[in-house]
Amino acid sequence: MSPDQPAAARPLTPLDFQLVLLRRMADHQPDLVEDARHELGVSIAEMRESNRRWQAMVRSPRSRGAARRYRSVLGAPEAVVRRKIGDLECEALLWPVPLWPGLRFEVLTAPGGAVWNEWLVRAPGAPGPVLRTADDLVPWSCTVDEVARAFAPVRPMEGTAPTRWRLAFTPPGGGPHIADFTWGLLQQVQLPDT
Questions:
Q1: 104 burial class (0-12, 13-18, 19+ CB within 10 angstroms)?
Q2: Would residue 128 count as lying in a domain?
Q3: Please, are residues 126 and 120 in contact by the beta-carbon 8 Å criterion?
């Protein structure tokens, strides 16, 4: 990440966006993030700078809508899929994420373009993990939807920060567990506080 332009002057790229995803995941999985950062060939300072620039763009008073922001950074979506949720029809915009080839970054938009959700999902046609027990829930192996389907019924809980989700569930033959997700990707599974 050392183009001729200073970092602040050049547009954000898909690599910068991956670093933004990693920056939030570092709170739960610092070792996995460190490995991914090395795989991408970037320094901690570059990861922090990408996150700083993303946050500045998100909070800017001249900020474009969220869907336009993603298009400006990630380019045209790989796929645009129409979905029906209840009586509402929406669009899911999907982008590849090289760090996780079996996943896509999904932005779910309402009629009129408002963004309802933005997270990582399994790529269409890509096999997901087999999830039978809590031991199968390995960090970065599965998405919110996959855990919700495998261990239904689940109870959605408020996340600990923006871009975070939690699910309470009880695996077969086990007691209550809580799964923590960042950007839709599993980070950790824990027992609830007693």
A1: buried
A2: no
A3: no
Give domain status of residue 6, yes or no.
no
Whether residue 138 is found in the same domain as residue 186:
yes
Last residue of a domain, one of 59, 75, 95: 59
Token pair 């599965």 in the structure block, residue: 142
Going residue by residue through the chain (194 aa), what tens digit of pLDDT does each one get? 544 555 556 889 999 999 999 999 999 999 999 999 999 999 999 999 999 999 998 888 776 678 889 999 999 999 999 988 888 889 999 999 999 999 999 999 988 888 989 999 999 999 999 999 999 999 999 999 999 999 999 999 998 888 999 999 999 988 999 999 999 999 999 988 74
Query: Are 48 and 33 contained in the same domain?
Result: yes
My answer on whether 49 and 70 are in the same domain is: no
Count up the domains in the chain and report the number.
3
In the chain the first and final C-alpha atoms are separated, in Å, by 46
Residue 29's domain spans which residues?
A: 14-59
Q: Are 24 and 183 in contact (CB under 8 A)?
A: yes
DSSP result, 57-69: HHH-TTPPPHHHH
